[in-house]
Design a protein that fits this description.
Immunoglobulin-like, elongated, 46% strand, 9 strands, 13% helix, 147 residues, four-stranded antiparallel sheet, mainly beta
Length: 147
């Protein structure tokens, strides 16, 4: 009897009915995206502060008209440092990117990041030892905007 009860209960659970489907929900908006590459030549980095001062760093800004108020407030903007840009060997390093660097016993950390607002993207490079007497090298970046 116990086996029959378990068998019937299992059958009822497995064969239970499903009700009618509910109404369709509202149509979803189509997701859009755009990516843009930027290259900052070594000679174009702007020093903020004085050479060697605490909190000195380099920056460079690009105007970006496709970075609208809507994308700024409702979308997502992601930034990457790019090695081997637009080749089969392209490598994206998500920003912020912090990397230890050294020569013999002289060690420091290089930090690369970005900031944005509608119409403008700014890239930053800073060094943990604030040795800003050497400009950053030419660097390529990629910004991905999703809305």
């Amino acid at each position: 009897m116990k086996k029959l009860f378990i068998t019937l209960l299992t059958a009822i659970c497995l064969l239970s009915c499903e009700g009618p489907a509910g109404p369709m929900g509202p149509a979803a908006e189509q997701t859009q995206w755009k990516y843009v590459y930027y290259t900052v030549e070594d000679r174009h980095w702007n020093l903020v502060g004085q050479i060697g001062d605490l909190n000195s760093f380099y920056e460079f800004s690009f105007e970006e008209p496709s970075l609208t108020d809507f994308i700024y407030s409702e979308g997502v903007v992601m930034g990457y440092a790019v090695d081997n840009p637009q080749t089969r060997d392209e490598i994206l390093r998500p920003l912020p990117d912090t990397w230890p660097v050294g020569e013999d016993t002289n060690l420091w950390t290089e930090s690369v990041t970005f900031a944005y607002k509608p119409g403008l993207v700014t890239f930053y490079v800073g060094y943990s030892d604030f040795a800003t007497n050497v400009r950053p090298p030419t660097m390529t970046f990629k910004i991905m905007m999703i809305w």
